[in-house]
Design a protein that fits this description.
With 44 residues, the chain is mainly α. It has one helix at 6-22. It has one domain.
Length: 44
């Protein structure tokens, strides 16, 4: 999260969603932590 806690992140997401809906942009909001491990390459 770019916010200090989950509650703040969810509130920011809610407000962002409302703004995008007002201006007619389809959007999806996900609140999650930032991956601290980084990218992994796997053999497929």
């Amino acid at each position: 999260m770019l916010s200090k806690n989950k509650v703040t992140a969810e509130e920011v997401g809610k407000i962002m969603k409302e703004v995008y809906e007002i201006i007619g942009i389809e959007n999806f909001v996900y609140v999650t932590t930032i991956n601290k491990k980084g990218v992994e390459v796997s053999d497929s």
